[in-house]
Amino acid sequence: MEPRQRHEFRQSWDVCSEVPIIQDEQGEKKKKHCLKWLSYAIVGVLVFTLVLLSKTSFLILISFGNNETEIICSEQKTTVLLGIGFILIGPSVLLLLKSTWKFIFKSSTMPSKKTVFWVLGCEFLVGLGAAVLTIVAMPHFDIVTNVMILNSVSILSAVFQVVANCLAKERKWLMVPLCSIFLIVTGYVLFAINYLAFESSLETKISVGLAIGGTICVSVNWWESYSTLFNVSFLKEISRDIAQSRNMVSIISSLIRILITSAVIAGYVPLSGQEWKSVKLVFETVVIALVAIQIISSALCRWFVVLACKMRAVRCSFIVPMYLASITVSAGFLVPHIVRLPESNQTSTCFENFQPNSSDEWSHLILTDVIRTLNARDIVVHMKTGGLACLGCSALSWWLGLILSTIYIWYLKIHRIERTQDLFVRPMYEGAFMEQSMLLNTRFEIRKIIKERRSAKEIIRVFLCATMWHESYDEMMKMIISMFRLDNYSPIHKNSDVQFEFHIYFDDAFKDVDNGRHANEYAESIVDVIKEVYTIFSEEDRSIFKQKAALPPQKIINTPYGGRLEYTLPKGNLMMIHLKDKTLIRHKKRWSQIMYLYYILGWRLNRQYFKEFEQGEELESIKERQKKERENTYILALDGDTDFQPSAVMLLVDRLKLYPEVGAACGRIHPTGTGPMVWYQKFEYAVGHWLQKTAEHVFGCVLCSPGCFSLFRGAALMDDNVMKRYTTKASEASQYVQYDQGEDRWLCTLLLQQGWRVEYNAASDAYTNAPQEFKEFYNQRRRWGPSTMANTIDLLGSGELTSQRNSSISKPYILYQIISMGASILSPATICLMIAGSFVFVFKMNADLSLVLAIAPPTVYLILCFKLKSDTQITIAAIMSVFYAFLMVGTILSIIGDLVMQQTFMTPSGLFLIGIVAMYIITAALHPQEFSLVIYGLVYFLCIPSGYLLLIIYSIVNMNNVTWGTRESGSKAKATAVNTIKKKFVNSLCCKCPCLESEDQFEEILPTETITQREQEFQLSPHQTWIERLQMKSNDFLLDETELPYDEIDFWRELQKKYLEPLKENKEQQEKIANDLKELRNKVTFVFFFCNALWLVATFFLQAIGSTIAIKIPKVYPNGTRFMSEDFSIDPIALMFLLSFASLLLIQFFAMLYHRIYTLIHFVAYADTEIKSFRKQSHQIPDSNHQPEMNDPDTALCIENPSAVPTNAV
């Protein structure tokens, strides 16, 4: 019994354990909850405020058109009508500009003739109804009627809902729209009785009929939300055609609205006895202010409503503010009437005779004037109870009718960051009907269809594919923990809408031994890491009183490419470790990527459908399901040292799931490590993501989705000219640079050229090790720099074709990239000019001499790079970088000193420096979790000459070196190189000391029993196969040997033969490629530095010419004092470059602001689903074997509470 107890229970004395640090992302739930509700509150208040401004300004303008009002004299009522017209056409003008831009710079199709005629008819009715209602009819009514009659435009929407529910046999929800119809019709009847029975004016009675007819015509506007619910093929075809040609349809509809509104105004002005000559000064003040307020507030309100829906704050930040708008505005106008505001002392308030002096006076006059429309009515003057009852009941009926016709929005289930076109039917709002248009424009769906869609939800399959080579033990640990953390977040069960599978492709995993090939120390380390992490995540209780759970057996397989380890993780997900033998299959990162692309997308995905085809299933059904699975299969590319949280993966999944045109999405990469080189990279990465990547995302597409953490869509990778072309073996010098030195960027270039969009998600954080040594950093950038340039030139070279295929890449965006490319090319010359400027100020040198001295060191370094070895070049660059760092300190002090001497910061250099610093600080403040990175900005500034001058010279001159440069050789996986060196050094001094001798010598003095036991536990026989050695290495974590299916063996052999055969050495071919690379290097170096030389020569001659062509900038002191006799001189080229660079930074800054808003929306929406999922799980009965079901749509894409690890492992 004793041995058994030792096996099942922990030894009572061995109570301590070494657990790696596993960070849990669930520690800040309260902060997320507070951020969520704070965002909801801010957006809700903004929506409510803006809709009140929009509605109030519009109704005031309508009231000014009433003959009873006095602020706008009767002779100037034409001005009011014109202002109403501008409000009506304002959204149409905005839509026209937006659609025209997309039509010109992005792809767009033309609608069919029947679609054009249908759109013309509908827009004619809506435009005519809106113009007649607001311009002709509403100025004759009182303010209460005008506030509420706008709610009656929901009449046809309620009718359409009744028809749609009847066709779907959805009787449960039939009564709601029926009640809405009844209330709206009742409102019409009471409205007609109120004016026909109690008013004697013929003009007013005609206006009643026009108002009712106008509201019915306007209600046609939202027909598209219901067209697909009717069993009418004509409407479905029209809707499909409109969706495909939305830009052109929007242009047509906007033009029709503008023409109809203009025609109604042009016709009504003479018919009403008014004249156009009365449009004069008043239009420049009162009316124009109301029009501007209404248009701006309406546009902003619509934008914030979209934000509220995307962050899933539909009820509190959208519906409630919209429902309360009419009531609040009515109360705002009626309260002054009830409390009886004092009358103005002015006998006339007409603008021509009296101009108020303060805003309070303005507000008093406007409210008094608006109330006159109600006070002048007979039912108010004589207090007729029946008329007042009809007025109040009609207003209430219309308001309740709108609520009931849009109550379906209250139960609308919205995905995180739902697409705007999936939320709202029409692409723009209606200026005169702000809250009504936003509510009625929300897409309507039948409840039964929603339930069917949920029950038939699509499964997203995410394959995490990491490439490894010579990673250290700690780096492997980070990657494996991240995968186990995701396994714990998303257990595999039938109700999961996202399923994960993990793959690690281990390059060069075997080594030569006497009797064959065995797994090397890195492959053995990965087995140890998995065993250690598996134990941590599978043990929920490490108590010595509880039996120790046995680790389940796993699989080890011999494969045509080497070997495979298959693990079933604690929560049921599958992990495969593919051990590559470079003598059997091609090695290096790109070929490992091709390996998993063809295995997952070619073999795994397509094989099942081919079997179904062989079994005789319907071909069209197979193709449809295959297409859908390609779209819903994602591959997450990872590096072997990437660390990430489950939320980072889910945020990327959101982008691809909701936006089918997105082919890839990347996250925010954080470099990790210690030392000055890592500090430099931390700020460099931060600036690159904060400004450059956000600008690319907002204005076009991200050009590079890094392979350390990027999610790719299977359908995009399997598209023409992508995956197939990615298998191309480099045969020319330029291909070696573009294909093998920057494979991630090349893959993105192929996706962009094929029409797919690449995006950036700033909330998706991943961490990867950065080069800590100067040499490793320079070698890494030696690969990245030329490959970036090659891929960018390739993309720009095909810009015309790419802009036609890719709707996200416009010609202005291509121009932006050309300017950015030019700035990068000229950066060495720019650094030289900056250094020359510091020489002039610090050492009082002549400008020409300072320029020569600034150019001399990099020129000498350029020559040396052609003559010396790579390591020597890097050593020289490191020494020069130190001297340049001191010089940069002098530069910054020189600029500050110049500002002090000039007694003003209003100089070109001063403004530029202050602007850059302020922009970086503001940008960092908008990234609060990363604000501390500004500290590293000083290191970044000191290293600018090294990074933008010496590094570029080194990269260009060594372009012919196509070796990897990093991890060329590694230390033992778990023993660091430092410890090894220390041991050997001490052994050399104390070779006779037993405690310091090598392990082999140490074993000699061990007792015989100890050696025997050690051999049994750790010594592996050289005659064992690699499988037996790993089985012995795994020890109590059993690895059962199995075999691959024959068809999979055939697949691997065919794949190896066609794409992945090991490259054979051909000395003649290698010499030819080496010569071609040198020739390419020489050409690129000449062109690159010739451009910089031209820039420097031009500057030199401009300085030589002197003040003849210099641009004079007057000197301005901080207090605003300006002296014409004192000025600054700047040459035209320098000014042009300064303005261009500043413009690029401003463009990137504004793009960053826009991107931050949408990042916050996505994060808040994710936090909302995460919190709801946590609550759901917390209410379930705790059961270690229970897997929660996912029937609640609020938990879509969130799976369950994403706790990273068991609490005892944190």
Reported for the largest beta sheet, the result is:
11 strands, mixed
Low-confidence stretches: 1-7, 344-348, 970-1023, 1178-1210
Gross morphology:
globular
What fraction of the residues are assigned to beta strands by DSSP? 5-15%
Instruction: Provide the number of structural domains.
Output: 3
Number of distinct helices: 45
Determine the fraction of residues in helical runs and give it as a percent range. Answer: 55-70%
Strand order of the largest sheet: 9-12-10-11-8-1-2-7-6-5-13
Distance between the termini: 34 Å
Mean pLDDT across the residues is 82
What is the number of beta strands?
Answer: 15
**Helix/sheet category:** alpha/beta
Q: Write down the Rg.
A: 36 Å
Explained architecture:
It is found in: Cell membrane. This protein is an alpha/beta fold and 1210 residues long. It folds into 3 domains: 41-340 and 370-453, no CATH class; 458-538 and 551-644 and 1029-1059, no CATH class; 673-701 and 719-755 and 769-962 and 1064-1095 and 1130-1175, no CATH class. It is built from 45 helices and 15 strands. The strands form 3 sheets. It has an 11-stranded mixed beta sheet, with helices on both faces. The chain has a two-stranded antiparallel sheet with strand order 3-4. It has a two-stranded antiparallel ribbon with strand order 14-15. Strand 3 (510-513) and strand 4 form a beta hairpin. Helix 2 (29-64) runs antiparallel to helix 12, helix 6 (155-167) runs antiparallel to helix 7 and helix 22 packs across helix 43. The longest helix is centred in the last third of the chain and has 47 residues, at 1132-1178. It starts with a helix and ends in a 32-residue tail after the last helix.
